[in-house]
Structure formats: structure tokens, C-alpha cells
UniProtKB/TrEMBL annotation:
GO terms for cellular component: COPI vesicle coat; Golgi membrane
Gene it is expressed from: COPZ2
Pfam families per record: Clat_adaptor_s
Originating species: Platanthera zijinensis
SUPFAM superfamilies linked: SNARE-like
Family annotation (InterPro entries): AP_mu_sigma_su, Coatomer_zeta, Longin-like_dom_sf
Protein name listed in UniProt: Coatomer subunit zeta
Length: 183
């Protein structure tokens, strides 16, 4: 028996019509864009009539284990191979679900997700990398995502503060050198 690290085939975040909001594929099981869209549509069609609003649901579809949960107009899906542990996939789903809730300040809906798509994609990257599960603790994921999203802004604000503090010295140097020519 060969042991392996638990892995994820894809993470899908679809709207209430089955359209993409954010998706990440980690396996070559769907080699073309058309194959990916067809898979997403099939999964959405199979699960849309279920009531996965309070707890995650698990289904077997087309040889894959799919764990999913719905909130407002967003549908969260985690796909694993047929030999993956459903509880691990459910833990990944709950981690994503809770982290997105923290990032969106519990306003988990399509509009807020699209407005913060960069943070949601960072969140997915913090959870799974190349199909390997890295983290499932939502507060850790949201914290890393928020700090990664803020790095660019923090350095810009630091630059502004540095320039503001340096301005008198720059002006003093400029005027001193300019008027020294005439003395």
C-alpha cells in the first residue's frame, strides 16, 4: 500500500448561475479550458438542487469526490480524487469558507467576492499549492492573505513618510549648493 500526501484536484467558487467567480485547477484531469468549463457546469447542475447551506455536502461525481457548501449567491467546491479522505477535503472547504468570511467581513456574496478577488485568490494560494494542502486554519490563512495584500501599500506609505521627513534636508542641501556658487 502506497501512502501519499492528501491533495486537491481543484477549488471552485461559482455564483448562483454556475458562472466562475474564482477557480484554481491543480491537476491535468481537465486539459483544456472547454473541459474545465464543462466540468464546472456539470458539477453545478448536479449540486444546485441540494441544500448545502448549513453544512458541507459530499458527493461522488464522475470518479471524483466533491465537497461543497453554499452561502448567499456563492457556491464553494473542493474536488479530490476518488481515494481522498472526505474529512480532509471537508476541512479544506471549511478553511476556505471561513477565511473568505473573515476577508469579506462576513459579507460573503458575489459582489463582495468580485471586489476582493485578489485577496480571495491569495487565500486559495495560501491554502493549496500545486494540489498539496498547506493550511486549513482560517485565521492563519486570512492573516497571511491580509498581510500579503497590504505589503505593497505598506511600502508605499513608508516611502511617503520617508520622503516627508527627508524633504527639509533635501531642500536645505539644494539651496545651500545653489547659493554657494554665487558666494
Amino acid at each position: 500500500m502506497q501512502e501519499s500526501c492528501p491533495s486537491v484536484k481543484n477549488i471552485l467558487l461559482l455564483d448562483s448561475e454556475g458562472k466562475r467567480v474564482a477557480v484554481k485547477y491543480y491537476a491535468d484531469d481537465w486539459p483544456t479550458h472547454a473541459a474545465k468549463l464543462a466540468f464546472e457546469k456539470s458539477v453545478f447542475t448536479k449540486t444546485q438542487k441540494t441544500n448545502a447551506r448549513t453544512e458541507a455536502e459530499i458527493t461522488m461525481f464522475d470518479g471524483y469526490i466533491i465537497v461543497y457548501k453554499f452561502v448567499q449567491d456563492l457556491h464553494f467546491f473542493i474536488t479530490g480524487g476518488d481515494n481522498e479522505n472526505e474529512l480532509i477535503l471537508a476541512t479544506v472547504l471549511q478553511g476556505i469558507f471561513d477565511a473568505v468570511g473573515l476577508i469579506l467581513r462576513n459579507n460573503v456574496e458575489k459582489r463582495a467576492a468580485l471586489e476582493n478577488l485578489d485577496l480571495i485568490l491569495l487565500c486559495l494560494d495560501e491554502i493549496v499549492d500545486g494540489g498539496i494542502i498547506l493550511e486549513t486554519e482560517s485565521s492563519v490563512i486570512a492573516g497571511k492573505t491580509a498581510s500579503d495584500g497590504m505589503d505593497g501599500m505598506a511600502s508605499l506609505s513608508e516611502q511617503v513618510i520617508s520622503l516627508t521627513l527627508a524633504k527639509p534636508y533635501i531642500l536645505k542641501y539644494f539651496y545651500r549648493n545653489k547659493y554657494n556658487k554665487y558666494i
